[in-house]
């Protein structure tokens, strides 16, 4: 597909697998996927120009890449100013985080603050910056029914308390991040 046709679509679905996001350009390394472009997600740069997309979707893929920082830098590169990235990944306390042998990273709801304005104190490793639009943590059904999911998602101090003290008992399931590229 010519590059002009690829960049006319404005959403990049990274690691699209067999469930590519409707209307997006899908990239994956697996030839049995629905990818429009086959590429190794651990080899940079991806075959797109700078600022080619308005949105990047990485659904259950960030935990598989070899270098999270480099992948986030690449997402930042291909996004235009104000472009957004949507990331879904298991919480590190969920069984699914460890039962898949291809998972390399086990993340929590604060893992991407590294790319924020205060960069978790370690901003010298990467210049890519994102503004946090939203973080949503899904908990196991029992805890959701008891109201813990509401508390975790609506009160940032409670989410910090949960991550520090409760998450091994009140276990997380999936986290969804929406971040805006700052350029």
Q: Could you explain the architecture of this structure?
A:
The protein is an alpha/beta fold. It has one domain (3-139, 173-182): Vaccinia Virus protein VP39 (Rossmann fold). The protein is 25% helix and 28% strand. It has helices at 3-8, 68-78, 95-99, 141-145, 148-154, 156-166; strands at 11-14, 25-28, 37-38, 53-59, 79-90, 129-139, 172-182. It has a 7-stranded mixed beta sheet with strand order 3-2-1-4-5-7-6. Helix 2 links the parallel strand 4 (53-59) and strand 5 (79-90). The longest helix has 11 residues, at 68-78. The two termini are 29 Å apart. The model is unreliable at 1-8 (pLDDT under 50).
Keywords:
single chain, 183 residues, alpha/beta, seven-stranded mixed β-sheet, 25% helix
Q: What is the arithmetic mean of pLDDT?
A: 92
**CATH architect. name:** 3-Layer(aba) Sandwich
Radius of gyration: 17 Å
Structural category: alpha/beta
Measured by DSSP, the beta-strand proportion falls in 25-35%
Strand order of the largest sheet: 3-2-1-4-5-7-6
SSE ordering = HEEEEHEHEHHHE
**CATH T-level topology:** Rossmann fold
Spans with pLDDT under 50 lasting ≥5 residues? 1-8
Percent of residues in helices: 10-25%
């Amino acid at each position: 597909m010519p590059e002009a046709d690829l960049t006319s679509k404005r959403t990049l679905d990274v690691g699209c697998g067999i469930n590519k996001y409707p209307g997006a350009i899908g990239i994956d390394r697996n030839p049995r996927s629905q990818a429009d472009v086959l590429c190794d997600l651990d080899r940079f740069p991806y075959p797109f120009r700078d600022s080619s997309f308005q949105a990047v979707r990485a659904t259950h893929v960030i935990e598989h890449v070899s270098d999270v920082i480099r992948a986030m830098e690449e997402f930042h590169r291909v996004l235009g100013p104000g472009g957004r990235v949507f990331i879904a990944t298991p919480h590190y306390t969920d069984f699914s985080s460890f039962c898949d042998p291809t998972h390399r990273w086990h993340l929590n709801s604060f893992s991407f603050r590294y790319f924020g304005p205060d960069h978790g104190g370690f901003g010298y490793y990467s210049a890519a910056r994102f503004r946090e639009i939203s973080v949503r943590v899904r908990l196991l059904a029992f805890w959701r029914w008891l109201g813990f999911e509401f508390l975790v998602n609506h009160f940032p101090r409670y989410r910090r308390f949960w991550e520090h003290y409760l998450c091994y008992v009140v276990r997380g399931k999936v986290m969804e991040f929406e971040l805006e590229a700052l350029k």
